[in-house]
Specification:
By secondary structure, the chain is of the alpha+beta class. It contains nine helices and six strands. The chain folds into two domains: about 70 residues, Arc Repressor Mutant, subunit A (Orthogonal Bundle); about 110 residues, Orthogonal Bundle (Arc Repressor Mutant, subunit A). Strands 1-3-2 form a three-stranded antiparallel beta sheet. The longest helix has about 45 residues. The chain starts with a helix and ends with a helix.
């Protein structure tokens, strides 16, 4: 393999991994000795730094990892914050709560409980992949049934539907039970977003520590 090809291969491996990759694993994949891999990685690291690229290649003990350049951290943080989905509106939470607790349900069932047309809100939840179609009810007209998705579980920090907060044994037509379902989802959503913000900070601190370690090793 030519030098440029080796650089590109290592770059591709580290980018695809998204986490530290052991140097021995890289050697095995490219059928190269460790001295060659170390030299090429150092060459890449120097090039990224010299050209002030948006990424850096850092060495962590006997592993290498691609990470973002620390001087661009404010822009990166802003970009990820803008991608964070907005909080659900009150109507969306109301519809989602009914589907979550009484799934599978039809839109007509949701409309009956809410007393208003829910077509727009159901469509919005479908677009955000919080609910999905799961067949049709065996009655005239064959209405579509809906249920929550894996994205719903991730968005609310749940491993399964069994982890939904328990509610009093009441009819779904009871307005109080609907309000309690909404409140339960609102609490879960707030807790998950708060944990996500904490996780972001922790991850940034870890990456910063990794960069400082790499810089210390390079200085030595």
């Amino acid at each position: 393999m030519e030098l440029k090809e080796i650089e590109s291969a290592i770059e591709g491996i580290l980018f695809a991994a998204g986490e530290p990759v052991g140097v021995e694993r890289i050697c095995l994949a490219l059928e190269l000795d460790r001295a060659t891999v170390d030299a090429v990685c150092q060459r890449l690291a120097d090039a990224y730094s010299y050209e002030r690229r948006g990424i850096r290649l850092v060495k962590l003990d006997s592993s290498y990892q691609l990470c973002s350049a620390p001087e661009f951290a404010p822009y990166i943080r802003k970009a990820f914050e803008s991608r964070r989905p907005a909080r659900l509106s009150q109507p969306a939470l109301e519809v989602l709560a009914i589907i979550a607790y009484y799934q599978p349900v039809t839109r007509a069932y949701v409309d009956q409980i809410r007393g208003v047309d829910s077509s727009y809100t159901v469509g919005l939840l479908l677009e955000r992949e919080l609910i999905e179609e799961c067949g049709r009810l065996a009655v005239p007209g064959r209405p579509i049934q809906y249920r929550t998705t894996q994205n719903f579980l991730r968005a609310f920090g749940l491993s399964s539907l069994e982890e939904l907060p328990e509610l009093p044994n009441a009819s779904p037509e009871d307005g109080q039970i609907t309000l309690e379902m909404q409140a339960a989802l609102e609490k879960l959503q707030a807790e998950e977003q708060a944990e996500g913000e904490t996780a972001d900070v922790t991850e940034e601190e870890i990456l910063q520590a990794a960069r400082e370690l790499a810089q210390t090793e390079e200085a030595q």
